[in-house]
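Q: I'm building a small set of examples for a reading group on sequence design. Run inverse folding on the following structure and report the sequence directly after it, with nothing in between.
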């Protein structure tokens, strides 16, 4: 936001200060009321997906304004074992950073806390989480650092229009990661030459209901290089111009066209994600179910987020790149709260 106007477009670095509510220029109580109303519309989260050759981990600090979610979900790729540390807390117990230098997103309750500390100018994103567990759910400890040094990692930051003066700001970045996951006495090591992390910083004044489809997957290749992608079909206007679709190959970022999602056999059947020209032709086959719903018959929130494997190709710089065997996740989301 500059002088009361959103700077619509796509950028190769994160915006230093995310200030979408500065569109409200009224002063006094009218300005405060307008900011409060628009802030309640804003869905904000800082999330990450990280993994190695065996495990895939999702973490998020999510502020839906009426409720907060703090989660770490770990999936063992070959066996389908899934562990879900998820706390629903009052929105006042989560804080999502608006800007990624010298900031932190954090949230939690009595059982645990997740903190993502941002120092992107210095080339670091730090993850620190713990949870005491309960019942059959073992205790959790997660810590590590993503390397987003210039030249090592490449950002896609977008400010895209929903219409009526509302926007989506998001920043995606694939980077090397090193760290450790402790599940009770079990230790999973994320070595920096075999592990990855995708940062997902997200602030959107979505229409109601919020609706979108999304898939992401990543890996370290045999030579240690990073391969990953982000594919979304959301409510942004003019998706053939404004979208967040991207593939990272051999240390470079490549923009992709608008895509459509097709699920002929439902959420737990194969998902086909493709564009009109065949640049993207990817099939996601869920192997591990995960969902979170709110309200009678999912009336307030219907959220499907299965994990599984990808097949197909994405063309980057004129060369088809295979995504066969990559592990990742998808989302089908419809939210009214």
């Amino acid at each position: 936001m500059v002088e009361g106007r959103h700077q619509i477009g796509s950028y190769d670095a994160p915006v230093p200060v995310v200030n979408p509510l500065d569109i409200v220029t009224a002063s006094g109580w009218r300005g405060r009321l307008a900011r409060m109303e628009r802030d309640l519309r804003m869905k904000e989260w800082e999330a990450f997906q990280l993994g190695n050759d065996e495990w895939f981990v999702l973490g998020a600090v999510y502020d839906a304004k009426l409720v907060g979610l703090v989660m770490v979900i770990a999936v063992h790729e070959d066996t389908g074992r899934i562990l879900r540390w998820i706390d629903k807390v009052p929105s006042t117990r989560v804080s999502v950073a608006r800007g990624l230098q010298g900031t932190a997103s954090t949230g939690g309750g009595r059982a645990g806390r997740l903190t993502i500390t941002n120092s992107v100018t210095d080339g670091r994103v730090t993850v620190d989480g713990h949870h005491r567990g309960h019942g059959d759910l073992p205790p959790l400890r997660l810590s590590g650092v993503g390397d987003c040094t210039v030249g090592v990692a490449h950002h896609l930051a977008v400010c895209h229009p929903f219409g009526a003066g509302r926007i989506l700001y998001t920043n995606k970045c694939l980077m090397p990661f090193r760290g450790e996951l402790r599940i009770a006495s079990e230790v999973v090591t994320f070595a920096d030459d075999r592990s990855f992390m995708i940062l997902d910083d997200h602030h959107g004044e979505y229409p109601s209901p919020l609706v979108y489809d999304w898939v992401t997957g990543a890996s370290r290749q045999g030579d240690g290089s990073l391969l990953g992608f982000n594919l979304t079909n959301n409510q942004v206007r003019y998706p053939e111009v404004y979208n967040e679709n991207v593939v990272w190959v051999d240390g470079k970022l490549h923009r992709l066209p608008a895509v459509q999602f097709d699920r002929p056999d439902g959420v737990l059947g194969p998902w086909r994600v493709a564009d009109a020209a065949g640049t993207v032709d990817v099939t996601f086959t869920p192997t591990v179910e995960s969902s979170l719903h709110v309200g009678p018959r999912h009336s307030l929130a219907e959220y499907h987020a299965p994990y599984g494997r990808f097949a197909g190709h994405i063309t980057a710089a004129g060369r088809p790149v295979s995504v066969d065997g990559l592990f990742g996740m998808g989302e089908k989301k419809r939210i009214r709260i």
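The CA atoms of residues 176 and 196 lie 4 Å apart.
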